[in-house]
Amino acid sequence: MALMMALVAMSTDIMLPALGHINQDLLTPHPNDRQLIIVILFLGMACGQILWGPLSDSFGRRIAIHCGSIVFMAGCLISIFSQSMEVMLLGRFCQGLGAASARVVTMAMIRDRFSGEQMARVLSVIMSVFILIPMLAPATGQAILGASNWRMIFVAILLYGLVIQVWFFLRQQETLSIDNRHPFTFRTVRDTFLTICRHRTTTFFTLSAAFVFGIFVGYLSFAQQLFQEFYATGDRFALYFAILALSIGIAMFANSLLVSRYGMHRLSLAGLTVLIFVSTILLILTALHGGKPPFAITFGLLFVFFLPIGILFINMNTLAIEPHGKIAGMASTVINTLITLGSLIIGIGIAQAFNATLYPFSTGALVFSILSLGAYYLAIK
Q1: Rounded to whole angstroms, how far apart are CA atoms 238 and 227?
Q2: Could you tell me if residue 367 is inside a domain?
Q3: Does residue 231 form part of some domain?
């Protein structure tokens, strides 16, 4: 389950060291075009979430994951043989669309089997494995790139997905009984969407989460340019990326320990306050150093910046879903889709504005952190 949930993270992070090579080989006209290789994956995932969740409720969990796997592996093959950026992006969209089944349906399978403390223990084990993927994936991509070329990275992703699917096919039984299935209709999706949009609290918590996740998507999209080109870290990029991923993992683990004592609201408010404070410091230092603060300062501030993001990822999503207990599964699908789509718009704006300075990121981080806090206050008002 952990390796399946990490399929999107693997498909994203293992590619980062190769983005510059792909940009050169496919002869893209603008250096920032490489960012679309990350962004389009998330777009496919957003579209897939709204598809696979309802389908798994109607036809069963296993068939939804198997169908998603076929789409994912077809996307890998398209990317492997792509000769243009347009074909590459088609493959990446298919990868995101297919990987969304593993992301969404896996959680449904866990809910089918476990509840309460048992579910909490299972999720703790899963998250402990999941956190390792973003830490190790860039180094894996760097190693493959050193031994071969960027196309072999897609071969590695394809093999990763294939091994998981074979393991899943042989070992995992269906968890949704026929009695608990209900017909898939677009009307159900539409009605749930309208219910959520009409719910003031959910709407603003969803918006607040999209602002925060948008900053993170922006960082992911230009991380390779930031480390390998802007700060010339070379092969050490994988190490620095892993350390920043570790900060999010630490925050997620800390949240599990602190949330019962302090509550989601206090932790979320503290997290947003830290984001605004760190963003302000980063923007000031960017201005004082002509757009390029020393690497040690930038790296240190990013490490602190990602700590509250790890907390907000979990709590904001939970707060948005909380009022919809009777339709929790479908509500989760719709809310996550809206958060992903909103964050894509924000992340693209931040990443595409990259101009060999930190002004776009630091300014975007500050603006959207403030907007996230404002949406949070509107949600609890």
Answers
A1: 9
A2: yes
A3: yes
Residue (of 41, 4, 234) closest to 138 by Cα position: 234
Distance in angstroms (rounded) separating the CA atoms of residues 134 and 178: 36
Residue 110 has a pLDDT of: 78
In sequence order, what are the residues at sequence separation of 6 or more whose Cβ sits closer than 8 angstroms to the Cβ of residue 101?
Answer: 48, 52, 56, 64, 65, 67, 68, 69, 71, 72
Total domains, the chain: 2
Give me the residue label for tokens 């592996």.
Answer: 73
Distance CA 116, CA 124 (A): 12
The backbone torsions φ and ψ at residue 322, rounded to the nearest 5 degrees and listed phi first, read -50, -40
If one counts every other C-beta atom within 10 angstroms of the C-beta of residue 144, the result is 20
The greatest distance separating any two alpha carbons of the chain, rounded to the nearest whole angstrom, comes to 64
Residues 203, 102 share a domain: no
The DSSP 8-state label assigned to residue 10 in this structure reads H
* pTM for the structure as a whole: 0.87
CA distances from 164 to 85, 135, 167 (A): 28, 19, 5
CB of 37 within 8 A of CB of 22? Answer: yes
Q: Which tokens sit at 345?
A: 């718009």
The pLDDT, as a whole number, for residue 107 is 76
**DSSP state letters, 129-149:** HHTHHHHHHHHHHHHHHHHS-
- Say if 179 falls within a structural domain: no
| Least reliable range by pLDDT among 48-57, 87-96, 182-191, 298-307 | 182-191
SS3 29: coil
Chain position carrying tokens 């998603």: 68
Alpha helices, DSSP H only, in 225-294? Answer: 237-288
One domain, residues 224 and 137: no
What's 351's domain CATH number?
1.20.1250.20
Residue 26 three-state SS: coil
Residue 131 inside a domain? The answer is yes
| 136 closest CA partner among 215, 246, 41, 44 | 246
In sequence order, which residues have a C-beta less than 8 Å from that of residue 341 and are 6 or more positions away? 43, 46, 210
As a whole number, mean pLDDT of residues 153-165 equals: 95
Identify the domain containing residue 143 by its residue range. Answer: 1-172
Same domain, 206 and 150: no
pLDDT at 182 over 80: no
